[in-house]
Every structure is written in structure tokens, then in C-alpha cells.
Design a protein that fits this description.
- The complex is a heterodimer.
- By secondary structure, chain A is α/β, with parallel strands linked by helices.
- Chain A has one domain: Thiamin diphosphate (ThDP)-binding fold, Pyr/PP domains (Rossmann fold, 3-Layer(aba) Sandwich), CATH 3.40.50.
- Chain A is 45% helix and 12% strand.
- In chain A, the strands form 2 sheets. Chain A has a 6-stranded parallel β-sheet, with helices on both faces. A two-stranded antiparallel ribbon of chain A has the order 5-6.
- In chain A, a hairpin with a 2-residue loop joins β5 and β6.
- The radius of gyration of chain A is 19 Å and the shape is globular.
- By secondary structure, chain B is an alpha/beta fold.
- Chain B has 14 helices and 14 strands.
- In chain B, the strands form 3 sheets. In chain B, strands 3-2-4-5-7-6-12 form a 7-stranded mixed β-sheet, with helices on both faces. A 5-stranded mixed β-sheet of chain B has the order 9-11-10-13-14, with helices on both faces.
- In chain B, β10, α10 and β11 form a beta-alpha-beta unit.
- Chain B is globular, with a radius of gyration of 20 Å.
- Classes of the chains: A alpha/beta, B alpha/beta.
- At the A-B interface, β2, α5 and α6 of A face α4, α6 and α7 of B.
Chain lengths: 319, 349
């Protein structure tokens, strides 16, 4: 049994179960904040982040739970942050849309579409300036491609040959607007390939394939000193924001979802491992351990204190 | 040791010294390394420090501002320059949504040591989109420091402090001040704390709080008020829009009992309104007349000279305002010579 396959599965399972737990807590009004779940997107988060080196830096969007857990594997301060507790990553000042753990290389996420793309660009610039060999990786959706700053950033990265990986997680919808209603061109990757960078694309839900593709991208990027653009497709199972399905509103057909569900990234990896291990009991044991870790993290976070009100005015400026 | 230098040289010295002291400081922005050198303020930097640390950029204001932020959180200290404050408005998403709040949103884990310099244009037809100050807009946002130095010494001292600061600082520089000369300490460690006003002229009768260029107008007005009416105006230059220690301003108003605020921005919801509110609250019982405000006309800045002349308040408006405050008859100013930018500045930019 190859360790990578199992490690990928552990992360996939952690993210899926953590978000299912959030779906359970959310109606009890403990997370009083807009929450954008990553269910369906896990193969990209896990495949890319697992291929990165520990020192590499990650930037993302409000849909950041998956990439956070994939990069840090640390659910407790994450749940504490979602619940607005003092023990959270940012003492509750950030919440779901701004999950950040810079001490672990999970640098900046933002509620503004495309907002962190140029920040990752600056991090890549600093890494090149300091010759520290780190890569900056920035995740964003197909909606971010509609923003001017995305093109400004790709242009500058290519101009200066910056060590950066742009990961476009394309789920075909910017909130409720389909890509065909927004783009005056056929293919994002097609346009980007006109720039001086390395372009990779895939429609797989197999985390291992994305892992291997990212490994290859990193190797070539470091060798050729070129930025990377990855165009990866996935399907968002739930509504844009919130914990429910939204097929009844008619902006996207449920049959689309059913097609993708057959290729669900967690089931896919699980089946592969069982086939190789020929022993489901071992997997169940691992899953139970992860469930226990999530449950304990949530319980602990629920018992934690809220920040004291004097925290309101700290850290406006550096003191 | 003090030496007589221009405002542009003072800005240049602060940046050069910052780059010499700290290898993490770099200077960038549209055309910072061309032959114009941001009106001389970036002169010699690319020649001395090379294109790694001083370089021009594409016209991508938002991406370049995000780049400054990403570089700052990764250990560098960027100085991003806009040749007009109007161009900085293209980067408001990064400034207002990202730069201002990242230190707060990470509960202090990320530090944002970055400096943005932007020039304020005026005259020779700069018009609606080459003349903005943006100071009231920017000062409204928690997490940003805004400095507006008036004298060459303030320019060097405050910018040096900004380059040493670990919070984002925006330095707004009036184009007409670039040729002003003043004595400036030669010492490259000379700095002025951000947030401390400066008394430019002592007086006992009325306090004039003037912002940047308006100090030049106020100084001229004060001379005339003294010679015509024997009124001694005290002129206080805040130098910093935010954060601001008001105690010197309050002390002056408590002493004179009269206050005129002359802002270099629009009137409505502007810095002058903030000053007036703070002063009236702190000095309520000591005020002998209502606080008066002068600021831009409530219009976009027009291009043609006769309209532009009435868009901006000037020394004459200050004199008339003080005369009215003290119920004095209007003195004849026809023989006075006031600042005329054509003496120094004939365009084109």
C-alpha cells in the first residue's frame, strides 16, 4: 500500500467529515457567519496541497475550509474560529470567510472574489527577492477570472517569472451565473496559454491524479522558472453559501450533480484503497480516529471562551 | 547639521536612506525609474540600487497594490508610488478591503509594513482626475495611517518614520510643494513621530488649522491680518490626518477661543468636519465664536483657470473669514501679491 494514497484519503475524509459536521452545527446558530462549504471540491484541495512542500505558501478565498485542512491538518483552532472563540486562529475576528494561519503557511483568504490573487503575487515576488525557494499557491474560482486583477496578476507573474501557482477551481458557476453567461471565450486555459507560463488542466476527481499533476507542475516550474496555471474542474454539491442543496431554484440541473456524484472524490479514493488493502476494517478504524479528532475539536471549541470585549480595539495598528 | 534643500530632495533622501539601511525596502510603481523620476523624487535610486529594488510596473494599480501587501507580509517593505492620488483610487479594493484589515483579521500575526506615496496635482488644467487628495476617503478607514507633510523637514522626517513603521502608511504630497525649500537635518536617522501636529506660527487671537498646501496660504493670510488688523493668528499644521494627537490643537483653541479650519479636500464629510467635531467637543466652554471651515467647493475640480480659482480656498478667503469672525471691515487687498503658481510651474503635468 502506497502511503501517499492513504494520506490523501485521510485528508479527503477529514475535510468531508469536518464540513458535514458544520452542516450539523449550523442550524443551531453557533456559527453566525456566511459559510461557503467545499463539499465536492476536496480532490483539488488535497491533491494540490499535498504536493506542496511544507514551506510553500497558500492563499485562497472564502471557500477555504478544504485548503486550510489540507495544508495544516489542524481542525481545533479552525473550529474555534468558526465558533468565534478566543482560541480561534484569529481570536474570532476573522471567521469562516477569512480563515488564516500564516504560521503554518496558510497565508491569506478573503471574502472578495480575486482579492488574494495579487497578494499571492506579492508573496511570490518577495520569495523570489529573498531567493528562499518557496512557492506561493493561490486558489480561486472561475468567477475570479471575470475580475481585471486576475489578468493583471497573471501578466505580472509571467513578466517577472515569479514562483507562483495559480489554481483555478472551476465549478462553472459564479454564485448562480453559469460560465457561458459570463465568458466571451471558450476556454480559460486556452487564453492563459497565450501567456509565458506553464498550463495544466484536468477534469478528474481523483486526488492522486491531481497530486501527480501538481508534482509535475512544481518540478517544471522550478526548472524552467515559469509560473504555473492549473485549470481544474469540480462540482459544488451545495448552495454557493450555506449548508443546503439548491437544485429546486432551477439555475442548475440536479442531473449535473448526479453525474459528478458518481465520481465523488472521497468514495473514489476509498474504493481504490479498499481494493488494494482488501480490508475495509482497517479503513473504518482510520475513519473513526479522524471522526474522534473532529468531534473532540468541536467539543473543545464549544467549551472555549469568547474573546473579551477589550479585544475589539487591539491590532488595528501594529503596536 | 541642517542644510537647505527642496521638498523633492527631502523625499528622495528619506527613500534613499531607507533603502541603504534596510535591504528589504524596494521602490516601485508606474514610471518610477524613467527620466521624469516622479518629478525628481526617485532620482538616483535605480542607478544606485539597481532594477531589483527600483522598477517601473505595468498600469495595473490593483495588482501592484496587492503585490505590495503580499511582499510586506513576507518580510519586505515596499514603497509604492502613484504620480497622482487619483490613480490610487483604482487600488481601493486592496487598500480598503485588504491592506487596512489584514493585521486585525489575523489578530496581529501578519504585519503590514508598507508605504504608499501619492502626489496631489493642481493648476495648469489638472482638472477633475489629476487633482484629488483622497485624504478624507482614506482616513475614514480604520487601519491606515495618512501623512501629509508640508515642509521639507516634515517630508523627510515623516517619510523616514513611515519607512520604519510596521503598519501601512499613505503619504500624500502636494505637487506645488516640490520646489519649496527649507532647512532639513542632514542626519539620515532624523524622523518625526506620526500623529504630532506642528505649530507653524505662534499667535494669541485665532487658531488656524490648515492642511498641507493651505499652510502656505494661511501663512500669507496671517502676515496680512497682522499688518492690517493687528490680529495674531496661530497656525497649526496637523501634518498627519490619522492617527492624530489633538492636544496641541485643543491647547491652541483654548488659548485663542476662535478657530478656523482650512482643509485641502472637499467640505462634506471631510477631515475639516472631523476636526470641527473634535475641537468643539473638547473646547466647548472656551469657544468665543463658532468654528468656521474652508474647503474645496462641492463640485468636481474644473479645468479652466477662472473656475479653478474659485474651487480652491486661498489666502484671501482666510483673511475674509477672519475679518467676518471679528466683525472687521474688509481691508483692500488689491495691492497685495499672492501666490501665483505660474511663477514656478508652467505644466504640463
Amino acid at each position: 500500500m502506497n502511503n501517499i494514497s492513504l494520506n490523501l484519503y485521510k485528508k479527503l475524509y477529514l475535510i468531508r467529515r469536518a464540513e458535514e459536521k458544520i452542516r450539523g452545527i449550523y442550524p443551531h446558530d453557533q456559527i453566525k457567519s456566511p459559510t461557503h462549504l467545499a463539499i465536492g471540491e476536496e480532490a483539488i484541495a488535497v491533491g494540490v496541497c499535498h504536493a506542496l512542500r511544507k514551506t510553500d505558501q497558500v492563499f485562497g478565498t472564502y471557500r477555504n475550509h478544504g485548503i486550510y485542512l489540507a495544508k495544516t491538518d489542524d481542525p481545533y483552532p479552525f473550529f474555534a474560529e468558526l465558533l468565534g472563540k478566543k482560541t480561534g486562529l484569529s481570536e474570532g475576528k476573522a471567521g469562516s470567510m477569512h480563515i488564516m494561519a500564516p504560521e503554518k503557511g496558510f497565508m491569506v483568504t478573503s471574502a472578495i472574489v480575486a482579492g488574494t490573487i495579487p497578494i499571492a503575487l506579492g508573496a511570490a515576488f518577495a520569495n523570489q527577492y529573498q531567493k528562499n525557494n518557496k512557492l506561493a499557491t493561490v486558489f480561486f474560482g472561475d468567477g475570479a477570472v471575470d475580475e481585471g486583477v486576475f489578468w493583471e496578476s497573471v501578466n505580472f507573474a509571467c513578466l517577472k517569472k515569479l514562483p507562483i501557482i495559480f489554481v483555478c477551481e472551476d465549478n462553472s458557476y459564479a454564485i448562480h451565473s453559469h460560465i457561458k453567461e459570463r465568458h466571451g471565450y471558450e476556454s480559460i486555459a486556452g487564453v492563459i496559454s497565450q501567456f509565458d507560463c506553464l498550463v495544466y488542466q484536468s477534469e478528474t476527481t481523483d486526488a492522486e491524479e491531481i497530486f501527480n499533476l501538481t508534482k509535475k507542475a512544481i518540478k517544471n516550474s522550478l526548472k524552467l522558472h515559469k509560473p504555473v496555471f492549473m485549470h481544474l474542474k469540480y462540482y459544488r454539491y451545495l448552495q454557493h453559501v450555506g449548508i443546503n442543496q439548491d437544485f429546486n431554484f432551477g439555475y442548475r440541473p440536479e442531473k449535473e450533480f448526479k453525474k459528478w456524484l458518481k465520481l465523488d472524490p472521497i468514495n473514489l479514493q476509498r474504493k481504490k484503497i479498499i481494493k488494494r488493502l482488501k480490508n475495509e476494517a482497517d479503513i473504518i478504524k482510520i475513519e473513526k480516529k479522524i471522526d474522534k479528532r473532529i468531534n473532540e475539536s468541536i467539543k473543545l471549541a464549544q467549551q472555549d471562551k469568547y474573546p473579551e470585549t477589550k479585544a475589539l480595539c487591539t491590532h488595528v495598528f501594529y503596536e | 547639521m541642517n542644510k537647505l534643500i527642496t521638498y523633492r530632495q527631502a523625499i528622495n533622501e528619506a527613500m534613499r536612506a531607507g533603502m541603504e539601511k534596510k535591504p528589504e525596502v524596494f521602490v516601485f510603481g508606474l514610471d518610477v525609474a524613467d527620466h521624469v523620476k516622479i518629478f525628481g523624487s526617485t532620482a538616483g535610486l535605480v542607478e544606485k540600487f539597481g532594477s531589483r529594488r527600483c522598477f517601473g510596473t505595468p498600469l495595473s494599480e490593483e495588482a501592484m497594490t496587492g503585490l505590495a501587501l503580499g511582499a510586506a507580509i513576507n518580510g519586505l517593505h515596499p514603497i509604492h508610488i502613484h504620480i497622482r492620488a487619483d490613480f490610487l483610487l483604482l487600488a481601493m479594493n486592496q487598500i480598503v478591503n485588504m491592506i487596512s484589515s489584514l493585521h486585525y483579521l489575523t489578530s496581529g500575526k501578519l504585519k503590514v509594513p508598507l508605504t504608499i506615496r501619492a502626489l496631489i496635482g493642481r493648476g495648469w488644467g489638472q482638472g477633475a482626475q489629476h487633482s484629488k487628495t483622497a485624504q478624507s476617503l482614506l482616513a475614514h478607514i480604520p487601519g491606515l495611517k495618512i501623512i501629509m507633510p508640508t515642509t521639507p523637514a516634515d517630508a523627510k522626517g515623516l517619510l523616514t518614520r513611515a519607512i520604519g513603521d510596521r503598519s501601512p502608511v499613505i503619504c500624500l504630497e502636494h505637487r506645488w510643494l516640490y520646489d519649496i525649500q527649507g532647512y532639513v537635518p542632514d542626519d539620515n536617522d532624523f524622523s518625526i513621530p506620526i500623529g504630532e501636529p506642528n505649530i507653524l506660527r505662534k499667535g494669541k487671537d485665532v487658531t488656524i488649522v490648515a492642511v498641507q498646501w493651505m499652510n502656505i496660504e494661511a501663512m500669507k493670510a496671517a502676515e496680512i491680518l497682522k499688518s492690517r488688523h493687528g490680529i495674531e493668528a496661530e497656525i497649526v499644521d496637523p501634518r498627519t490626518i490619522k492617527p492624530l494627537n489633538y492636544s496641541k490643537i485643543f491647547k491652541s483653541v483654548m488659548k485663542t477661543g476662535h478657530c478656523l479650519i482650512v482643509d485641502y479636500d472637499w467640505f462634506y464629510c471631510g477631515f475639516s468636519a472631523e476636526l470641527a467635531a473634535q475641537i468643539s467637543s473638547a473646547c466647548f466652554g472656551k469657544l468665543k465664536s463658532p468654528i468656521e471651515r474652508l474647503a474645496f467647493a462641492e463640485t468636481p475640480c474644473p479645468t479652466t483657470r477662472p473656475l479653478e480659482d474659485v474651487f480652491y480656498p486661498n489666502a484671501v478667503d482666510i483673511i475674509r473669514s477672519v475679518e467676518e469672525k471679528f466683525n472687521l471691515s474688509k481691508s483692500n487687498l488689491s495691492k497685495e501679491s499672492f501666490y501665483n503658481y505660474e511663477n514656478k510651474f508652467k505644466g504640463p503635468f
